[in-house]
Design brief:
By secondary structure, this protein is α/β, with parallel strands linked by helices. The protein is about 45% helix and about 20% strand. A hairpin with a 7-residue loop joins β6 and β7. The protein starts with 14 loop residues before the first helix and ends in a 15-residue tail after the last helix. The structure holds zinc ion.
Length: about 450
């Protein structure tokens, strides 16, 4: 006679209990399952809550009937799962009670608002918000549509990014505009303003458009103590953002972002090149025009050109730039770059003052004089960099992340959705909170 096999006592062998163990939902009974031809699984459950009380009068409710509600659950053994929850319909037996009847609720399984189960919704939020997967990818894994996943990510995501502990005191605040492309037939371009903790490299928030009202309201909304903690502010060369700081954070020391300062000078150089091109040849740059051939070398950092490249550039310039305007603008752009090589703040101050005086000379082309006026207007914020050495660099990194979000998540219906998606990815939410957060029903 063959011996009965012995299993470790920790091994569950009762088929019903194995079922419950695999399904893993709290206090439910598995009623049955179907595996469809497409390999998706339909799983029927009910809760073990066989009694309920009226929330108004406390009477023991009577069972009125059943209502089967379908949810998208996590996949099982690689197959998408459709969860059919047989919900009890209860009725209050008291004729005078205003409550009447209701359907059972168990937020641990699923809320009433989303088509994903609670656990599938939280999982989707991590996949999309933290791991940067596309909504489409996650929807394919779950066997549901884009909106079902997106709604869940936004609901759990809002709870996470608007949690009051996401950020605290900020000593260096950066303001930066970035482009938010609204999807749709006309693909209208909108700008949003990013508020960034430039020391921690954390995106604090996004507010609509690039005017001053919204950033001001946001900053003031953080309270007086928070505002007092902001010691410095970084910004591009934008008068609007400068007015935000002047109005609501007047004690913060402004730092003009180095990248934007140099880019501004490169833009002026480019304007000069196009003007001279037009004045000398009467048309926009074409392939064999000297100034068109030299345009990339002009915008490169001088030290990235070797001696040959530099000679070649100057040679081509002589052919296309008879009055030397473009060459002058190139030297001016390089002089501003050199300003950032000066380590000592006092020397940097002397250097910028010389540049401002020098570039005001009426012999220079208009673009160089314009560069000089910008240096004069922004003298203090430009020189402040030499003391504080902070830049919007982290903001730029945020923008790159945000662009990725834009690619993966086109079809946003509103700025609010875009804000949540971007903050999940770049706003450093505390992901350890996710299992504990409840979402409004
Ligand atoms: Zn009642």
């Amino acid at each position: 006679m063959p011996q009965a096999r012995k299993f470790p006592s920790s091994l569950e062998t009762d088929p019903t209990k194995v079922n419950e163990l695999l399904v893993g939902l709290p206090d439910v009974t598995v009623l049955g399952a179907v595996r469809h031809a497409d390999d998706s699984v339909e799983l029927h459950i009910q809760t073990n809550a066989s009694v309920d009380g009226c929330r108004s009068c406390g009477s023991v409710a009577t069972l009125k009937g059943w209502r089967v509600v379908t949810f998208v659950d996590l996949p099982t053994f690689g197959s998408p799962v459709s969860l059919r929850w047989h919900k009890r319909r209860w009725r209050c037996p008291e004729a005078t009670c205003p409550v009447g009847s209701w359907t059972e609720v168990d937020e641990r399984i699923a809320g009433s608002r989303l088509r994903l189960t609670d656990r599938a919704g939280r999982w989707a939020t991590v996949e999309v918000g933290k791991n940067g997967r596309t909504v489409n990818e996650v929807a394919t894994v779950l066997g549901c549509d884009w909106h079902t996943v997106n709604d869940a990510v936004l609901a759990f995501g809002a709870a996470l990014v608007d949690h009051p502990g996401r950020f605290g005191a900020v000593s260096a605040l950066g303001l930066d505009e970035h482009l938010f492309v609204k999807a749709g037939e006309r693909r209208i371009q909108h700008f949003v303003t990013a508020l960034v903790d430039v020391e921690r490299g954390q995106l604090l928030d996004l507010v609509p458009d690039r005017r001053s009202e919204e950033p001001k309201r946001w900053i003031e909304g953080q309270g007086a103590e928070w505002c007092r903690g902001v010691r410095s502010g970084t910004l591009d060369l934008s008068a609007t953002y400068r007015s935000v700081f002047d109005d609501v954070l007047p004690d913060a020391r402004l730092v003009a972002d180095k990248f934007h300062v140099v880019r501004h000078m490169t833009t002026k150089l480019d304007e000069c090149r196009r003007r001279v091109q037009n004045e000398t040849l009467g048309h926009r740059g074409k392939k064999n025009d000297p100034l068109f051939r030299v345009r990339r070398r002009l915008s490169m950092a001088a030290e990235r050109l070797d001696a040959d490249g530099r000679d070649k550039m100057l040679g081509i310039l002589r052919a296309g730039d008879p009055r030397g305007d473009v060459q002058a603008a190139w030297w001016a752009k390089e002089a501003v770059r050199e300003l950032y090589e000066v380590a000592d703040p006092v020397l940097a101050g002397q250097f910028i003052d010389e540049l401002i005086t020098d570039m005001a000379d009426r012999d220079w082309p208009i673009e160089v004089r314009s560069m000089g006026r910008t240096l004069a207007r922004w003298r203090e914020p430009i020189i402040a960099w030499h003391d504080l050495r902070i830049s919007n660099g982290p903001t730029e990194a945020m923008n790159n992340l945000a662009k990725r979000i834009k690619r993966v998540g086109f079809g946003f219906r509103s700025f609010a959705n875009y804000r949540i998606r971007t903050l999940l990815y770049a706003g450093k939410p505390d992901w350890s909170l996710l299992p504990t957060l409840s979402i409004p029903g």
